[in-house]
Amino acid sequence: MKPTLPILLTASCFLVACNRTTSPPSVAGTALDRDALATVEGHPIRLVDFQAELERRARGSADTFARPQAREALLEELVTSESIYLRAKDSGFDQRPEIARQIKRFIVERFTEEQLSDKSDPPPVSDTEIAAHYDQNASRYATPEQVRFAAIQFGFSPKGTDEKKAEVLRKVEFVLAEARTLPTSERGFGALAQRYSEDQATRYGGGDAGWLSLGDEGRWDPAVKSAAFALQKAGELSSVITTANGCYLVKLIERKEAGRRPLAEVKEAVGYQHSVAKREHIRQAFYESMKAGLKIEINRPLLDSIAAPAIQTETRPPSIPAS
Fold first, then answer.
1. Spatial distance between the Cα atoms of 274 and 264, rounded to a whole number of angstroms
2. Are 269 and 106 in contact (CB under 8 A)?
3. 64: β partners
4. pTM as predicted
5. C-alpha angle 272-273-276 in degrees, rounded to nearest 5
6. Does position 35 have pLDDT exceeding 70, yes or no?
7. Alpha-carbon distances of 249 from 14, 201, 237, 246, rounded to whole Å
8. Model confidence over 200-231: pLDDT tens digits?
9. DSSP 3-state assignment of 259?
10. 249: part of which helix (H) or strand (E)?
11. What is d(CA 18, CA 22) in angstroms, rounded to the nearest whole number?
């Protein structure tokens, strides 16, 4: 990011001040404005501006400008800065397109900030507003249908023989019969998963696969997900599920129907979002008020003819070979 003009000028002050031949002191009795500490080609450096800069620099170190020499040095800096500024203006520097853009951007940002300073914090959001915002944005707080299920995986190779697949199926039917005898208090498959499942991520947790939404993409085969969502009651077992890579048993642990998070649960977030929306509404209203009454024309053909900028890729220097 390029520095703004005020920063460029301030930085230049220090460079010029170090090499500048000091001008002779003002002749006693030279007429100056009552509130001007100095002038450069008739342009005053006013007391109020000097004091503002003095206070800014003295923050955190009150004794910085206790000595008269320090205050005189600061005035010398401001004289140098004003000199550079006048020379820059005489050269047309402030009319350069890139500088003019920076000045315009600075003015727009500061003016906008000042105009919105007393409006940026709207009144606290009321419970009525929160409830209305919650209802108007119902989809934002919607929760999809979810199931929590347990699974036991029995793998086989897609290229396996029919005899091998039949052997796996007999094993699955045997485990299914055993699973039906589990107590109702057993949320998943318990020790059965640890003993038979080939899914290393879930076998030691009773096959618990966690929560799954219908639209979630994950590692589970679509047939397994469909079977899990088809189960209606906790503890209900699926029939044997056969896929290209093996067989599965699925047991429903818990399900949540599609709904909406309670207002009490999201009240703080809703209040924040509505507050942000209020501030944005104020900002947009300000923008519209600034354009109101002005003749604004858009050259649509020219706008449409502008090509999208090329994507800039970061070029990194080659890495140094390891020694």
1. 15
2. no
3. none
4. 0.51
5. 90
6. yes
7. 78, 15, 7, 11
8. 999 999 999 999 997 787 789 999 999 999 99
9. strand
10. strand 246-256
11. 10
